[in-house]
C-alpha cells in the first residue's frame, strides 16, 4: 500500500472537492493547554478564562438539567431569551442565543453576506473574525489599529464601499484590551448607512472601568442596523458551556435564527446561563469582575514600572506588543510555567489570573528584561 502524498499548502488530503477558499483557511488556534506531564505548576493564562469556577447556583442548575438530557432543549432557548430581554430592557424578539458568540457572529454573516461582499474589521483583533468572514464567502477588509493599539474609526468608515455588508468592532478589543469610547462608538454607528450591519462585540464589557467607554446597547433604539454581541464565557465563568447572545432589531434577529443550527444551545448550557442571571449571581459576577479589573490595573502599572509598553487594557487581559520577539517571549513565559497567547510577529496576550499567577507573570516579565 502506498502512502498518500503530503498535501501542499491550501490543499487537503481528501478526494472530495473542498471549496478552495475553505481549503485555504487557517485553522483557529486556541490558547495553549497545560501539559499533564509538566514538572512545574502551570498557570494557564492563554484563553482569557476567569480563574474562578462557576457559582454554586449555576453548577446546581447544570446538574438538574443533565438529568433531563434524554430530551431536546428549547430549540431557540426561549426561556433564556426572555430572561435576557428582561435583563436588558428589550423585547424577546430582539435576542438570539447561540452556541457561543462566535457561532452567532457566523450566523449573522451567513444571513447577510453574499460571495464577494466585504466585511470591515479592525486588525489586530479577534482571530476568529476573518475565518468567519471567509466561511460566509465574503472578504475581510482589515483596518490596522492606531499606533497606541486602538480602533481607527475614521479609517474604518473610509473603507466602507458599496460591497460592504458588515462593519465589525470588538470593545474591549481582543487582544489589545483597548476600548471604543462612547463618542467613537457613536461616530462609528452614525457613519454607516442603515443597510450595512454594524456589529459590536462586547465579550469583555463586564471588566470595563473606564467611564469614557461606550455601551452599544444604549444606541440600539436609534440604530436598526446595530447588532450587539455578548457572552457568558468570560465574566460569568461559563467558557466551557458555550453560550452567547446577540441583541438587534427583530427582523434581523429572525433572519439570524433562520440560518442557525437547530437546538444549538444544549440543555445544561441554557440552564447554566439562566441561573447566572439571578440577582445574587449577577451581584457576585460584578464583584468578581471588579476584582479582576483591579488586578489588571495593578499588573499593568507594575509592568510599566519595569519598563514595558502596555496599552490601556479594559479586558481581563493585557497586550505586550514585542514584534519579532513574540515567540521567544512566549517560550520564556512557558519555561516559567506560564502559558500565554502568542501572535507570531506581533505580540503576546496574557490573561489576568489569580494573584499568585499574576505575581509569577511579573517575575517572569522582569527576568526577561534582565536577561
Automatic annotation (TrEMBL):
Pathway: Amino-acid biosynthesis; L-histidine biosynthesis; L-histidine from 5-phospho-alpha-D-ribose 1-diphosphate: step 7/9. Its cofactor is pyridoxal 5'-phosphate. It is an enzyme of class 2 (transferase). Keywords: Amino-acid biosynthesis, Aminotransferase, Histidine biosynthesis, Pyridoxal phosphate, Transferase. GO terms for molecular function: histidinol-phosphate transaminase activity; pyridoxal phosphate binding. SUPFAM superfamilies: PLP-dependent transferases. The modification N6-(pyridoxal phosphate)lysine is found at residue 234. Pfam families: Aminotran_1_2. It catalyses: L-histidinol phosphate + 2-oxoglutarate = 3-(imidazol-4-yl)-2-oxopropyl phosphate + L-glutamate. One of its GO terms (biological process) is L-histidine biosynthetic process. Residues 42-363 form the Aminotransferase class I/classII large domain. Its EC number is 2.6.1.9. Coiled coil: none annotated. Belongs to the class-II pyridoxal-phosphate-dependent aminotransferase family. Histidinol-phosphate aminotransferase subfamily. Homodimer. This is Histidinol-phosphate aminotransferase. It comes from Actinomyces johnsonii F0510. The lineage of its organism: Bacteria, Bacillati, Actinomycetota, Actinomycetes, Actinomycetales.
Amino acid at each position: 500500500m502506498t502512502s498518500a502524498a503530503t498535501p501542499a499548502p491550501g490543499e487537503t488530503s481528501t478526494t472530495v472537492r473542498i471549496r478552495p477558499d475553505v481549503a485555504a483557511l487557517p485553522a483557529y488556534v486556541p490558547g495553549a493547554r497545560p501539559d499533564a506531564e509538566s514538572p512545574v505548576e502551570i498557570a494557564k493564562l492563554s484563553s482569557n478564562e476567569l480563574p474562578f469556577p462557576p457559582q454554586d447556583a449555576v453548577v446546581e442548575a447544570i446538574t438538574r438539567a443533565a438529568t433531563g438530557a434524554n430530551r431536546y432543549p428549547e430549540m431557540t432557548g426561549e426561556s433564556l431569551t426572555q430572561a435576557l430581554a428582561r435583563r436588558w430592557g428589550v423585547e424577546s424578539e430582539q435576542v438570539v442565543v447561540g452556541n457561543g458568540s462566535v457561532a452567532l457572529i457566523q450566523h449573522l454573516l451567513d444571513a447577510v453576506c453574499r460571495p464577494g461582499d466585504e466585511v470591515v474589521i479592525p486588525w489586530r483583533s479577534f482571530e476568529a473574525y476573518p475565518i468567519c468572514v471567509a466561511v460566509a464567502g465574503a472578504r475581510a477588509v482589515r483596518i490596522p489599529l492606531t499606533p497606541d493599539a486602538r480602533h481607527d474609526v475614521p479609517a474604518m468608515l473610509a473603507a466602507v464601499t458599496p460591497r460592504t455588508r458588515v462593519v465589525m468592532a470588538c470593545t474591549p478589543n481582543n487582544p489589545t484590551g483597548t476600548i471604543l469610547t462612547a463618542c467613537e462608538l457613536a461616530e462609528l454607528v452614525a457613519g454607516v448607512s442603515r443597510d450595512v450591519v454594524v456589529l459590536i462585540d462586547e465579550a469583555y464589557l463586564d471588566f470595563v472601568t473606564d467611564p469614557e467607554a461606550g455601551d452599544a446597547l444604549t444606541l440600539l433604539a436609534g440604530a436598526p442596523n446595530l447588532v450587539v454581541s455578548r457572552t457568558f464565557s468570560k465574566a460569568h465563568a461559563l467558557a466551557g458551556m458555550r453560550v452567547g447572545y446577540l441583541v438587534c432589531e427583530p427582523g434581523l434577529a429572525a433572519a439570524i435564527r433562520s440560518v442557525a443550527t437547530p437546538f444549538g444551545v444544549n440543555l445544561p448550557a441554557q440552564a447554566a446561563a439562566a441561573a447566572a442571571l439571578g440577582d445574587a449571581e449577577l451581584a457576585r459576577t460584578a464583584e468578581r469582575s471588579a476584582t479582576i479589573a483591579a488586578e489588571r490595573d495593578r499588573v499593568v502599572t507594575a509592568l510599566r514600572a519595569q519598563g514595558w509598553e502596555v496599552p490601556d487594557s479594559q479586558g481581563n487581559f493585557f497586550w505586550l506588543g514585542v514584534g519579532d520577539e513574540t515567540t521567544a517571549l512566549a517560550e520564556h513565559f512557558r519555561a516559567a510555567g506560564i502559558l500565554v497567547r502568542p501572535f507570531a510577529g506581533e505580540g503576546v496576550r496574557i490573561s489576568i489570573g489569580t494573584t499568585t499567577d499574576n505575581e509569577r507573570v511579573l517575575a517572569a516579565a522582569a527576568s526577561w528584561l534582565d536577561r
